[in-house]
Protein backbone atom coordinates (compact mmCIF):
# COMPACT_ATOMS: atom_id res chain seq x y z
CA UNK A 1 0.00 0.00 0.00
CA UNK A 2 1.28 3.44 -0.92
CA UNK A 3 2.49 5.55 1.95
CA UNK A 4 1.65 3.21 4.80
CA UNK A 5 2.64 5.21 7.87
CA UNK A 6 1.64 2.62 10.49
CA UNK A 7 4.09 2.81 13.38
CA UNK A 8 5.20 6.36 12.56
CA UNK A 9 4.60 9.39 14.79
CA UNK A 10 2.44 12.22 13.44
CA UNK A 11 2.82 15.76 14.74
CA UNK A 12 -0.31 17.77 13.87
CA UNK A 13 0.22 21.52 13.96
CA UNK A 14 -2.93 23.63 13.56
CA UNK A 15 -2.43 27.38 13.55
CA UNK A 16 -3.88 30.76 12.77
CA UNK A 17 -1.47 33.47 11.72
CA UNK A 18 -1.59 37.17 12.50
CA UNK A 19 -0.57 38.13 8.98
CA UNK A 20 2.20 40.35 10.41
CA UNK A 21 5.71 39.95 9.02
CA UNK A 22 4.58 37.64 6.23
CA UNK A 23 8.01 37.77 4.58
CA UNK A 24 9.85 36.90 7.78
CA UNK A 25 7.42 34.06 8.36
CA UNK A 26 7.81 32.65 4.84
CA UNK A 27 11.60 32.72 5.07
CA UNK A 28 11.60 31.04 8.49
CA UNK A 29 9.04 28.42 7.40
CA UNK A 30 11.17 27.60 4.39
CA UNK A 31 14.35 27.30 6.44
CA UNK A 32 12.58 25.11 9.02
CA UNK A 33 11.15 22.84 6.29
CA UNK A 34 14.62 22.28 4.93
CA UNK A 35 16.14 21.75 8.36
CA UNK A 36 13.40 19.32 9.43
CA UNK A 37 13.97 17.21 6.31
CA UNK A 38 17.61 16.74 7.34
CA UNK A 39 16.80 15.40 10.81
CA UNK A 40 17.24 11.73 11.69
CA UNK A 41 13.90 9.96 11.65
CA UNK A 42 12.17 12.52 9.42
CA UNK A 43 9.57 10.74 7.26
CA UNK A 44 7.81 13.54 5.42
CA UNK A 45 5.28 16.33 5.70
CA UNK A 46 1.82 17.33 4.48
CA UNK A 47 0.85 20.97 4.62
CA UNK A 48 -2.13 23.09 3.58
CA UNK A 49 -2.80 26.71 4.43
CA UNK A 50 -5.47 29.20 3.40
CA UNK A 51 -6.58 32.57 4.76
CA UNK A 52 -4.06 32.45 7.58
CA UNK A 53 -5.24 29.08 8.82
CA UNK A 54 -2.81 26.20 8.44
CA UNK A 55 -2.47 22.50 9.13
CA UNK A 56 0.96 20.89 8.95
CA UNK A 57 1.41 17.19 9.52
CA UNK A 58 4.98 16.04 10.02
CA UNK A 59 5.84 12.37 10.25
CA UNK A 60 8.65 10.81 12.27
CA UNK A 61 10.13 7.36 12.62
CA UNK A 62 9.59 7.34 16.38
CA UNK A 63 8.81 9.53 19.34
CA UNK A 64 12.50 10.22 20.06
CA UNK A 65 13.04 11.79 16.63
CA UNK A 66 9.88 13.93 16.97
CA UNK A 67 11.04 15.16 20.38
CA UNK A 68 14.56 15.77 19.07
CA UNK A 69 13.14 18.03 16.37
CA UNK A 70 10.97 19.86 18.89
CA UNK A 71 14.03 20.60 21.02
CA UNK A 72 16.46 21.26 18.13
CA UNK A 73 18.27 24.53 19.07
CA UNK A 74 17.62 26.30 15.76
CA UNK A 75 14.00 25.18 15.68
CA UNK A 76 13.47 26.27 19.30
CA UNK A 77 15.10 29.64 18.69
CA UNK A 78 12.94 30.29 15.60
CA UNK A 79 9.81 29.24 17.45
CA UNK A 80 10.56 31.54 20.38
CA UNK A 81 11.51 34.45 18.15
CA UNK A 82 8.55 34.17 15.83
CA UNK A 83 5.72 32.90 17.99
CA UNK A 84 4.36 36.25 19.16
CA UNK A 85 4.77 37.89 15.76
CA UNK A 86 3.36 35.25 13.45
CA UNK A 87 0.68 33.35 15.31
CA UNK A 88 -2.62 34.21 16.94
CA UNK A 89 -2.74 30.70 18.33
CA UNK A 90 -1.62 27.20 17.60
CA UNK A 91 -2.43 23.73 18.75
CA UNK A 92 -0.22 20.70 18.45
CA UNK A 93 -1.09 17.03 18.85
CA UNK A 94 1.44 14.19 18.87
CA UNK A 95 0.03 10.81 17.90
CA UNK A 96 1.02 7.22 17.11
CA UNK A 97 -0.24 6.13 13.70
CA UNK A 98 -2.04 2.81 14.03
CA UNK A 99 -3.10 2.35 10.40
CA UNK A 100 -3.08 3.99 6.97
CA UNK A 101 -5.27 3.74 3.89
CA UNK A 102 -4.84 5.32 0.55
CA UNK A 103 -6.69 5.53 -2.71
CA UNK A 104 -5.64 6.84 -6.11
CA UNK A 105 -7.83 7.34 -9.14
CA UNK A 106 -7.13 4.85 -11.88
CA UNK B 1 -4.76 23.32 29.00
CA UNK B 2 -7.09 24.29 26.17
CA UNK B 3 -8.12 21.50 23.86
CA UNK B 4 -6.07 18.70 25.35
CA UNK B 5 -6.84 15.77 23.08
CA UNK B 6 -4.63 13.20 24.80
CA UNK B 7 -6.30 9.82 24.59
CA UNK B 8 -8.48 10.75 21.61
CA UNK B 9 -8.23 9.21 18.15
CA UNK B 10 -7.27 11.45 15.23
CA UNK B 11 -8.27 10.59 11.68
CA UNK B 12 -6.06 12.52 9.23
CA UNK B 13 -7.55 12.79 5.76
CA UNK B 14 -5.25 14.29 3.12
CA UNK B 15 -6.70 14.68 -0.35
CA UNK B 16 -6.43 16.26 -3.74
CA UNK B 17 -9.63 16.99 -5.58
CA UNK B 18 -10.32 16.76 -9.28
CA UNK B 19 -12.33 19.99 -9.30
CA UNK B 20 -15.19 18.17 -11.06
CA UNK B 21 -18.69 18.50 -9.64
CA UNK B 22 -17.63 21.17 -7.13
CA UNK B 23 -21.25 21.84 -6.15
CA UNK B 24 -22.02 18.18 -5.53
CA UNK B 25 -18.86 17.89 -3.49
CA UNK B 26 -19.62 20.96 -1.37
CA UNK B 27 -23.16 19.74 -0.63
CA UNK B 28 -21.95 16.26 0.30
CA UNK B 29 -19.10 17.62 2.45
CA UNK B 30 -21.55 19.82 4.29
CA UNK B 31 -23.98 16.98 4.87
CA UNK B 32 -21.17 14.68 6.06
CA UNK B 33 -19.84 17.36 8.46
CA UNK B 34 -23.26 17.68 10.04
CA UNK B 35 -23.78 13.91 10.21
CA UNK B 36 -20.32 13.30 11.71
CA UNK B 37 -20.99 15.84 14.45
CA UNK B 38 -24.05 13.84 15.52
CA UNK B 39 -22.17 10.56 15.95
CA UNK B 40 -21.39 9.11 19.37
CA UNK B 41 -17.80 9.80 20.32
CA UNK B 42 -17.36 12.74 17.93
CA UNK B 43 -14.95 15.24 19.47
CA UNK B 44 -14.43 17.84 16.76
CA UNK B 45 -12.77 18.63 13.47
CA UNK B 46 -10.05 20.84 11.98
CA UNK B 47 -10.07 21.47 8.26
CA UNK B 48 -8.08 23.55 5.77
CA UNK B 49 -8.23 23.39 2.00
CA UNK B 50 -6.62 25.41 -0.77
CA UNK B 51 -6.15 24.87 -4.50
CA UNK B 52 -7.86 21.49 -4.37
CA UNK B 53 -5.57 20.17 -1.66
CA UNK B 54 -7.18 19.50 1.70
CA UNK B 55 -6.37 18.25 5.17
CA UNK B 56 -9.19 17.30 7.51
CA UNK B 57 -8.50 16.13 11.04
CA UNK B 58 -11.43 14.55 12.84
CA UNK B 59 -11.21 13.61 16.49
CA UNK B 60 -12.96 10.73 18.21
CA UNK B 61 -13.35 9.53 21.78
CA UNK B 62 -12.02 6.09 20.92
CA UNK B 63 -11.21 3.76 18.08
CA UNK B 64 -14.69 2.18 18.11
CA UNK B 65 -16.38 5.52 17.40
CA UNK B 66 -13.90 6.32 14.59
CA UNK B 67 -14.56 2.91 13.01
CA UNK B 68 -18.33 3.30 13.46
CA UNK B 69 -18.19 6.58 11.52
CA UNK B 70 -16.10 4.99 8.80
CA UNK B 71 -18.68 2.25 8.35
CA UNK B 72 -21.77 4.44 8.84
CA UNK B 73 -24.12 3.50 5.93
CA UNK B 74 -24.72 7.08 4.75
CA UNK B 75 -21.04 7.97 5.02
CA UNK B 76 -20.03 4.79 3.15
CA UNK B 77 -22.59 5.40 0.41
CA UNK B 78 -21.43 9.00 -0.07
CA UNK B 79 -17.80 7.92 -0.15
CA UNK B 80 -18.47 5.24 -2.75
CA UNK B 81 -20.63 7.51 -4.88
CA UNK B 82 -18.31 10.48 -4.82
CA UNK B 83 -14.84 9.02 -4.67
CA UNK B 84 -14.18 8.70 -8.39
CA UNK B 85 -15.77 12.05 -9.20
CA UNK B 86 -14.25 14.28 -6.52
CA UNK B 87 -10.82 12.97 -5.69
CA UNK B 88 -7.59 12.41 -7.57
CA UNK B 89 -6.23 10.64 -4.53
CA UNK B 90 -6.52 10.58 -0.79
CA UNK B 91 -4.57 9.23 2.13
CA UNK B 92 -5.89 8.51 5.57
CA UNK B 93 -4.02 7.87 8.79
CA UNK B 94 -5.63 6.81 12.06
CA UNK B 95 -3.63 7.65 15.18
CA UNK B 96 -3.78 7.66 18.97
CA UNK B 97 -3.08 11.10 20.39
CA UNK B 98 -0.44 10.83 23.09
CA UNK B 99 -0.14 14.52 24.02
CA UNK B 100 -1.36 17.99 23.12
CA UNK B 101 0.07 21.47 23.46
CA UNK B 102 -1.50 24.78 22.71
CA UNK B 103 -0.55 28.42 22.76
CA UNK B 104 -2.64 31.57 22.41
CA UNK B 105 -1.38 35.10 22.03
CA UNK B 106 -1.98 37.20 25.13
TrEMBL record, chains A, B:
GO terms for molecular function: monooxygenase activity. InterPro entries: ABM_dom, Dimeric_a/b-barrel, Jasmonate_Hydroxylase-like. SUPFAM superfamilies: Dimeric alpha+beta barrel (SSF54909). The keyword Oxidoreductase applies. Keywords: Monooxygenase, Oxidoreductase. Residues 19-80 form the ABM domain. It comes from the Bacteria. The keyword Oxidoreductase applies. Pfam families: ABM (PF03992). This is Antibiotic biosynthesis monooxygenase. The lineage of its organism: Bacteria, Pseudomonadati, Pseudomonadota, Alphaproteobacteria, Sphingomonadales.
Amino acid sequence: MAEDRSGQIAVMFISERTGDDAEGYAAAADAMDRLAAQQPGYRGVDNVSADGLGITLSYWADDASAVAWRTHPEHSATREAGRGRWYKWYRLHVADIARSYSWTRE
